[in-house]
Amino acid sequence: MLIKKLRIKLIICLGFALLYSTPHLYAAQNILQSMEQQFQAIVNSVKPSVVEVTATQVVGEVRLGPVLKEAFRGKLVPIQHHQNIGSGVLIDSDGYIVTTEAVVRNADKIEVKFSCGQRQSATLVGIDGYSDIAVLRAENGYPTETVLGDSDQLGPGSWVVTVGCSYGACPTLSFGIVNGLEILSDNPHYEAIQINAPMKPGNSGGAVANTSGEIVGVITATLDQVPISSKVQSSRGDFQHSRIFSAQDICFALPIKTVQAIARDIIHHGAVPRGWLGVRVDHHDSRGVQVTDVLEKSPAESAGILQRDIIVDFNGTPVNTYTELVKLVTASAPNTPVKVNVLRAGEQLALDVVLGAID
Q1: For residue 69, what is the DSSP state?
Q2: Which of helix, strand or coil describes residue 353?
Q3: I need a surface site. Which of 175, 283, 306, 312 has the fewest CB within 10 A?
Q4: CB neighbours of residue 349 within 10 Å
């Protein structure tokens, strides 16, 4: 009798547990479904603005043996081609597309493929080697609403979606989190967005979108694969060191505001005008950056900057590192008058400099 009562109580408890857990179960499913729909909405918003870029380079004629030479006499000799396939982002309805310099380097022919399947030839408008940004233009334009967001709103913890193309698969998607902004050693002119997101070959030039479905960046680089030492047990039972490679789970993107400014200069001027000071500096000085050399006939020489001067301020902005100085100088237009404050023999001097132009 007691066992029967306990069994009845157990059934009742399970019934109540199931009754109360069912709404929570459905609620959890609804949250996941909502997240899925939001993710799809972001992709659908960005996808029309992402193109596959195919850059073809003629690398020479095929070498033919005596028999084939005779067969091809009086006919066209086969040509060897090299193809680069990457991604690009359509930035307006006039057909201007941004990609990376690495995708279109030395290309003799460029073709873009839109998300609708349409293919078009594209011309190279210009390349900015300092930022690795290249601008293309589709020959017939492409009327689409590209929604660009405010990249200044991104910060550590921001959620983003990357949309690119990878060797025939377009779009290729990835979800990631922004770690922050970083100045790369090989590109001290701009801050790049560092993102925890797995990348595939061909994603270079692809789009970074925020949770509102707005494009806020263009992918320019990934971390190189780094060998990691690992212990592997052999068939004999002993352990041997083996090298494996980590996945490319971190990528870098230029903020869309930076990309727009670079593209605008390339479209209107053919290049990005950048200021030039004409000094070499020591990276390590707690007070600023120490000048180790002043180039002849440079703006720095004309302004009276001397070797061993310590630059502490550039046009009102304190300077603590070499990368800060480079960024400030190159962000200024050539022929711009600026004030450079230096420490010389313990005394601070304000020098007037008219910047030159980087060739």
Answers
A1: H
A2: strand
A3: 283
A4: 14
Q: What rounded mean pLDDT belongs to the chain?
A: 81
pLDDT tens profile 190-247: 888 999 888 777 788 999 999 999 999 999 887 654 444 444 444 444 444 444 434 4
CA 161 – CA 164 distance, rounded (Å): 10
- For 181, the 3-state DSSP assignment is strand
**Cis-peptide into 171, omega within 30 deg:** yes
What kind and span of H or E run contains 68? helix 66-71
Q: How far apart are alpha carbons 27 and 17 in whole angstroms?
A: 16
Q: Is 83 a residue whose pLDDT tops 90?
A: no
Instruction: Output the six-digit token pair for 285.
Output: 């000085």
26-38 pLDDT per residue, tens: 555 678 788 888 8
Q: What is the rounded distance in angstroms from the CA atom of residue 326 to the CA atom of residue 316?
A: 15
Side-chain-side CA neighbours of residue 158 (13 Å): 24
Burial class of residue 99 (count of CB atoms within 10 Å of its CB; 0-12, 13-18, 19+): buried
Report helix, strand or coil for 139. coil
Q: What is the DSSP string of 232-251?
A: EE-TTS-EEEEEEE----EE
pTM across the whole model: 0.74
**How many Å apart are CA 54 and CA 107, to the nearest integer?**
9
Q: How deeply is 231 buried, as exposed, middle or buried, from its count of CB atoms within 10 A (0-12, 13-18, 19+)? A: exposed
Phi then psi for 136, rounded to 5 degrees?
-115, 165
Residues near 214 by Cβ (< 8 Å), separated by ≥ 6? 45, 147, 148, 149, 150
